[in-house]
Amino acid sequence: MTSSTDAGPGTPAGPAAPRPAAPAPAAPPRGGSLRRQEARAGLLLLSPTLIITLVVVVVPLLWAVMLAFQDARLINIRRTGLFGNYTLENFGYVIAQPGFWSSLVTTLIYTVAGTALSIVIGLVAALALRDRFRGRTLVRASILIPYVAPVVAAAFLWEVMLNPQYGIVNTWLGEPIAFLTQQEGTFLGVRVPVALLTVIAFEAWRYFPFAFLFIMARLQALPPDLEEAAVVDGATPTQRFRYVVLPQLLRVVALLSVLRFVFTFTKFDDVYLLTGGGAGTEVVSVRVFDFLTGRNDIGASAAQALVLAAVLVVFLAVYLKFFAGEKEDRA
Amino acid sequence: MTSATGPAPLSRDRVERGVLRVLRPVVIAVLFAVTAFPFLYMLMLSVRDIQELILDPGSLWPQSFTLSTYADVLGRQGFLTFIRNSAIVAVTSVAVTMLISIPGAYAVARLRFFGRRQVHFLFLAVYLFPAIILAIPLFVLFTMLGLRGSLIGLILVYIAQTVPVTVYMLRNYFESVPPSVEEAASIDGCGRIETIWRVVLPLSKPALMATGLYSFMIAWNEFLFALLFLVEKRDSWTVSLGLSQLAGSIEIPTTVLMAGSVVLTLPIVLIFFASERLLTEGLTVGAEKG
């Protein structure tokens, strides 16, 4: 455990350490030992990276899995040893807690809608900004700001703008809406989950620049001759998009879907900052946090987090299988 | 084929082009508005008095311009301390991340050793790994070690989260540096570290900027771990944590907190756009030299 504290002050010296070892290959005696020296130097240069990843990511991950099967609370944590006392109690407890299933459903809706919206808006933005126009640099810069800005500032900004008393958005509406604290409302006679939709809108607003960057890079790398040929053949702009551009973007869109799905499914900051998980927006990660800090129940928190990870893995497996199958069909 | 079905698609073509000619500026204007307006509103709100906001919430332009909100947030609310903490955390994270990932990336890009290919998988796993799961054991560990409330623990976590990604980014760039340049250096008698320092790094300035910026942004913007580790100790709050904690209080006027948001947002946006230009310049200069 102390090694993690040592890594902090110790690491600045880390890359300096290989220095004496490195000049050795400059005077190679034989081919075989040169190769061995290269391998040794490679591992040596990579070792700081491996050590910090192991100590701060891999080992804690394994520990989290163990904690999920132990009766661990912050008070008795020193007594829970490495071995023994493994139990499935935490999982039973977590599943039996009120709001378990609804939080899974909320997480899923939030993730699917947030992912889809951010990719669609990112695609539209990339297509709109594809050709040059005056002020394109300015618009591009502006589009990137929501993604670059700190999440705390962005969430606070939305809170203020949507505030029912003095928020500017509500001064434009006839009747003020409590966007972030109202669970349900009626829109054109249909009951809608107001807070959840607001959180999804935030997600789309904040992460469409991410999709925009990926898709824009791909669009600019497309060879122009295919589209020129399509123009000669008399294809209209939508036909060109549907049959020429879109097929070439499918791979990047598929990659974006996976990335955004994974990131959004376990996202904590955005929902926690906007609603604190209230008003029908309680996603699983917020529950994990509440178990951990609110109840100091580490075991339950870890079990809840593992459930989240397991569901994510299942969805990814299904998606990849579905996607790989589709590729085979086309081939 | 064009001549046979010529007239019909052509008219459809004309209609579509017409629609798109109108639609495209509209889309661009909407995108510009929804992204730029909130941040302009943030600026506008940060330079006015709270009374003005409550009396006339719909107004955009401040009637009386004041900077007292900034004085309040920096002094009385302690944002100067938060900025210092954030700066310490971010700068240390960037420095250590670079020191660790430059040799690591070079090793993966150039040197042949066992496990070199498998390393990618580790990096991808860390990149995709949910922070909320990692938060639990690290929270317990830092509680046991008494590291909660200290910036060192936070810096460690940020380094571990960024190093795999920065190694990956740098590796891609190092691979694009022609090996012949390095061979020339080694014939001139440069050792491996000297070759990295004198030849590879000067050629990789844009990539170094990008990776440094990436780790700075992670450290400056991060919220979850700062909340878990530092929340009980106000003197150690980062700017992000400070704003999120003070945003709930009723005593602090919203306009003052908006000044805090500007203080939090502006550095990162300025750094991003300044270095983005540098990045493109660096790349084009390299291209001219061939």
UniProtKB/TrEMBL annotation, chain A:
Its main location: membrane. Keywords: Cell membrane, Membrane, Transmembrane, Transmembrane helix, Transport. It comes from the Bacteria. The chain crosses the membrane at residues 43-69, 108-129, 141-158, 194-215, 249-266, 298-320. Residues 104-319 form the ABC transmembrane type-1 domain. Pfam families: BPD_transp_1. Coiled coil: none annotated. Residues 1-33 are annotated as: Disordered. GO terms for biological process: transmembrane transport. It is found in: Cell membrane. It is a multi-pass membrane protein. Residues 15-28 have a biased composition (Pro residues). One of its GO terms (cellular component) is plasma membrane. PANTHER family: BLL4140 PROTEIN, DIACETYLCHITOBIOSE UPTAKE SYSTEM PERMEASE PROTEIN DASB. Belongs to the binding-protein-dependent transport system permease family. This is Transporter.
From TrEMBL, chain B:
Its main location: membrane. GO terms for cellular component: plasma membrane. It comes from the Bacteria. InterPro entries: BP-dep_ABC_trans_perm, MetI-like, MetI-like_sf. Keywords: Cell membrane, Membrane, Transmembrane, Transmembrane helix, Transport. GO terms for biological process: transmembrane transport. It is a multi-pass membrane protein. SUPFAM superfamilies: MetI-like (SSF161098). It is found in: Cell membrane. Residues 83-275 form the ABC transmembrane type-1 domain. The chain crosses the membrane at residues 22-43, 87-109, 121-145, 151-170, 207-230, 250-273. Belongs to the binding-protein-dependent transport system permease family. This is Transporter.
